[in-house]
Amino acid sequence: MAANDAEADPTELLIRARAGDGQAFGALIGPYRGELCLHAYRMLGSPDDAEDIVQDSLTRAWQSLSSYEDRGTVRAWLYRIVTNRCLTVLDRASRRALPTDFSAEGFEEIHWLKPLPATHTAHLSAYDPEARTAALETVELAFLTAAHRLPPRQRAVLLLRDVLGFTAAETAELLGMTVAAVNSALQRAKTHQLNAPQAQRVENTEVRLAAQRYAKAWEAGDVEAIISMLAEDVRYSMPPLPHVFSGVRQVRGFLHTGPLRHPGQAWLFLPASANGQLAFGTYMREATAPAYEPAGLDVLSFSSSAQITEVVSFLEADLTDFGLPQRLTAT
C-alpha cells in the first residue's frame, strides 16, 4: 500500500477499487480489519476461525465490489458480509462453551471457547479509554460465555446493536430482518443475559500485585498461599477437560492431588494477557528434566477486592500466540 493511500479520501479509494485497484481496496478496508476480526471472534469464539472468516469475507467483498451500492457505509457493508458468513458457519457447528457452562454429559461434542491473544486487541489502543474498556469487556470470558448461550442470530443482534452501536434499522438491513424482528431478538437476548454472569473489568495495582503473588505461590508449591487468594465461590476449569472445581475446598483438594502433589516438580509462570484479562503462561518441569514444558494458559478473573473468582486453564493453548516461549531451558 502506497503511503499516500493511507491518507486518501475513502470516496476516491472506492472509485479506484471499483476500477480494479487492489492497493486502493486494501487501503479502503484496512482500518476495519481489526474490529471485524474482533466481531467474528465474539460470534465464533475462536481467533483462528475469526481470522479465516474475515479473510474469506474480504475476498468476497473484493470480488463483489462492483455490486456494492452506496447505501450506508463501507463499514456496514463489510459487517454484513462478515456477520452473515459467521451465521452460515454457526448453522453447521455447535456453540462454544467453557466447562463451567454445561453438564459434563456429552462433552465430547462441545466446541471450546478459545483464548484471545492481546495482538487481536492491539487496534483498541487507538480508542479513547472509555471506549477501549467497553470493547475489552465484550471479549472477556464471562461475556463470551453468556453470549454463546444465545442462538446465533440473537447473538448477532446483541453484538451489532449493543456492542457496535448499529441502529435497529441498520441491523435489520445487515441481517435481512425487519426492524420489529431485530427489536424482539434484542429484547430476548437481553432477558437471557440478565440471568447470566456478567464480565467485571477489574484491573488495578492491587489486582496486579495479587496476580504476581498467585504466580509466586504456584512456583513455590504453596497450596495454602494459593487458597488464601481465592474467593470462597471460586471456579477452576481446564478445557478441554470437562472437570470444574467449585469453591476453595474442591480447589484445595485438586491442587494437593493434582498439579502440586509431587514436590520434585517445578512450576514457572510467565505473565501474559488474554481476552483483555490478566493471564499466565504456565510451564512445568519434572525433577530430572532439562527444560520447562508448556502446561497451559491460565486466564484469571478477579473481584473488586482483588480475590480470584475464576481460573480457566486452557491446556491446549499455543503459548507462542501470546508472546511466550514454547519451552524454557532450566537454569
From TrEMBL:
It comes from the Bacteria. Residues 29-95 form the RNA polymerase sigma-70 region domain. Residues 212-302 form the SnoaL-like domain. NCBIfam families: PRK08241.1, sigma70-ECF, SigX5. Belongs to the sigma-70 factor family. ECF subfamily. Interacts transiently with the RNA polymerase catalytic core formed by RpoA, RpoB, RpoC and RpoZ (2 alpha, 1 beta, 1 beta' and 1 omega subunit) to form the RNA polymerase holoenzyme that can initiate transcription. This is RNA polymerase subunit sigma-70. It comes from Candidatus Nesterenkonia stercoripullorum. The lineage of its organism: Bacteria, Bacillati, Actinomycetota, Actinomycetes, Micrococcales.
